[in-house]
Amino acid sequence: MCSHCNQSKRTVDHMATRCKKMLGHNYTRRHNEIESNSLNIVEIYKKSKEILTVEMRLDLYIVILNKTYECMLLEYRRRENLNTK
User: Fold this and answer.
1) Which of 32, 49, 51, 81 is buried most, with the most CB atoms less than 10 Å from its CB?
2) Could you tell me if 51 and 67 are in contact, meaning their C-beta atoms sit under 8 angstroms apart?
3) Of 75, 83, 21, nearest to 52 (Cα)?
4) Where along the chain do its domains lie?
5) Which residues have CB under 8 Å from 38's CB, separation 6+?
6) Rounded Cα distance, 17 and 47, in Å
């Protein structure tokens, strides 16, 4: 007997395609693996006081960066100067 659904013999065909509880368990497990391994980047721009907040979720760690508009322009110009040399 199948230990998941108690209806059929425990065969490879039943476990792979027909056992409803096993299919649901496998789907949930794969969904959780993809969710935990994915790189989720959420960008939130707050324009009050010229502060941009960028929130990045990297493998369950949340990093919040606060940069002023002037600082971002300075970094952009610095990057352009390095690329032209």
Assistant:
1) 51
2) yes
3) 75
4) 1-37, 39-85
5) none
6) 52
The pLDDT > 90 percentage for the chain reads 0
CA 21 to chain CA centroid, Å, is 26
Q: What would the two tokens of residue 63 be? A: 């990093």
> Does position 66 have pLDDT exceeding 70, yes or no?
no
CA dist 39 and 35 (Å) reads 8
User: Which pLDDT score, from 0 to 100, does residue 62 have?
Assistant: 44
| pLDDT confidence bin for 65, thresholds 50/70/90 | low
φ, ψ of residue 62 in degrees (nearest 5): -110, 125
Q: Which residues contact 15 (CB under 8 A, 6 or more apart)?
A: 2, 22
Residue recorded with tokens 């002023």: 68
Alpha-carbon distances of 84 from 72, 77, 79, rounded to whole Å: 19, 11, 9
